[in-house]
Q: What sequence folds into this?
């Protein structure tokens, strides 16, 4: 295969997906978003597997990448619905942290233009180490940043899915043509079968010995 083919395009797309997943993993770690962290980890592993299969001409690995891509698109659609609060979902719940912490998206307090202020409560009866965080001046809300990240993942995954299917079909055609040529070569160089020779029994000849006495 030449360089300007679907295989090279799929390699480029896998590299982009890998970079996008690593970037997202970093910010999800900063926000302690355990569910996305787990999903990003699986995404990184499968993309590396698909990249290896594309480089090494292993269609089975690309099939695994294709199946996971469909699941990855579904997961990112769910994240979009979660942050846009579609279908009764609420971005204020602890679903992304498996209900083990109250952390939210890292972009909530560190988005573009956001000013983060720590406000100490003045009411009596509240512990001194308890504080509120006030965030103002954000150019774009954190939920839309999360939606943009998921939309980019969906776009790359859909394009990668199409090219992965194309590369799998090309690999399978090449394997079939290789087997066909190999079969012809084997047939051409095969020795012809030996002809069967019918053997007939030989009758003994009686020899008479005459005495000269």
A:
């Amino acid at each position: 295969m030449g360089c300007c083919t679907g295989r090279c395009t799929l390699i480029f797309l896998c590299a982009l997906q890998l970079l996008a997943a690593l970037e997202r993993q970093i910010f999800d770690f900063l926000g302690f978003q355990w569910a996305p962290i787990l999903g990003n980890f699986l995404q990184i592993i499968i993309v590396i597997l698909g990249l290896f299969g594309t480089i090494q001409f292993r269609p089975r690995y690309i099939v695994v990448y294709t199946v996971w891509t469909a699941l990855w698109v579904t997961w990112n659609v769910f994240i979009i619905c979660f942050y846009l609060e579609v279908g009764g979902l609420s971005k204020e719940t602890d679903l992304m942290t498996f209900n083990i912490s109250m952390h939210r998206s890292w972009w909530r307090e560190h988005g573009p233009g956001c000013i983060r202020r720590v406000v100490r409560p003045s009411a009596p009866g509240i512990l001194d180490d308890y504080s509120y965080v006030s965030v103002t001046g954000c150019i774009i809300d954190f939920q839309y940043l999360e939606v943009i990240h998921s939309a980019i993942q969906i776009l790359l995954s859909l394009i990668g899915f199409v090219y992965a299917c194309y590369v799998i079909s090309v690999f399978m055609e090449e394997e079939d043509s290789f087997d066909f040529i190999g079969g012809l070569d084997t047939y051409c160089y095969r020795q012809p079968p030996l002809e069967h020779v019918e053997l007939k029994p030989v009758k003994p000849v009686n020899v008479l010995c005459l005495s000269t006495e």
Helices lie at 6-30, 34-55, 59-83, 107-110, 142-188. The CA atoms of residues 53 and 61 lie 5 Å apart. The chain has five helices and two strands. The chain has a mean pLDDT of 82.
